[in-house]
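lol ok so funny story. i was supposed to be doing the assay writeup but got distracted and ended up predicting the structure for this chain instead. priorities right. anyway since i did it might as well share w the group, maybe its usefull for someone
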Amino acid sequence: MTDRRVALVTGAARGIGAASVAALVAQGYAVVAVDSCAGEGPTRPDAVTYPLATREQLDAGGGAGGGRAAGPPLWQPRDDEQEALWQVDVRGVWTTAAVTVPLMLAGP
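and the output, tada:
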């Protein structure tokens, strides 16, 4: 077993998520960088689909997914957009916190 700390970052492909990955790597973390970019072009050859199987090895986590680049004003979404926003921006962050916060509070 190694003493290297492990962090999970969601929304890691760009913006705050990508910056978080860079900062954690600079601090010596092994980072599991996760993002869902379905429909945004070809998949990278090194991209994998893999569920987090060892929660016990997680030392830090952060949720940076969310946002939109186009469409009507945020306060006037269509029904399908509103559901997508809820799933990513609310449920995604809540689920990440529900899994990671208890592990971090328990300590190493």
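The chain has a mean pLDDT of 71. The first helix runs from residue 15 to 26.
back to the writeup now i swear
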